[in-house]
Write a structure and sequence with these properties.
Mean pLDDT is 88; it is low at 122-126. 0% of the residues lie in helices and 41% in strands. It has no helices and eleven strands. The radius of gyration is 15 Å and the shape is globular. The chain has a single domain (4-117), classed as Tumour Suppressor Smad4, CATH 2.60.200. The protein has 126 residues and is an all-beta fold.
Length: 126
């Protein structure tokens, strides 16, 4: 069994929702219907495609997708691509931020917290 990443919404319209990733994934966060983490549509402080979580348990890297109001990690605004350019860029060309367990990501009025679940050691000494 491998590690999994849990993204837990702690503030905003998604409070209490949990998103679990057990394998490599790219997770869009925003108001659009194609986002894996879809913030409430009435939160106009979040962009349609606000940011991207590049997940490869146990690692997570966050990329701002030229959001109008910015993406924040622990209160610090992330650098982002110039408006209109993010859709043409692949994440490796965007300024990214590796996340640690317990980091808080703010997207509009929604706050997400990053957790790591490590598999239990099931081997027995003997």
């Amino acid at each position: 069994m491998q590690s999994s990443i849990i993204i837990l919404a702690t503030k905003g319209g998604l409070t209490g929702h949990e998103f679990e990733f057990t394998a490599k994934a790219r997770c869009l966060v925003g108001r659009a219907g194609d986002c894996e983490v879809q913030v409430p549509g009435e939160d106009l402080t979040a962009s349609r495609h606000h940011c991207l979580l590049d997940i490869n348990p146990p690692c997570v890297t966050l990329y701002d997708l030229a959001s109008r109001n910015g993406t924040y990690v622990n209160g610090e605004r992330l650098p982002s691509a110039p408006p209109g350019e993010a859709e043409e860029l692949v994440p490796e060309e965007l300024p990214g931020r590796p996340l640690k367990v317990g980091d808080e990501v703010r997207v509009g009025r929604t706050t997400l917290r990053v957790w790591l679940v490590e598999p239990a050691n099931t081997s027995m000494a003997g």
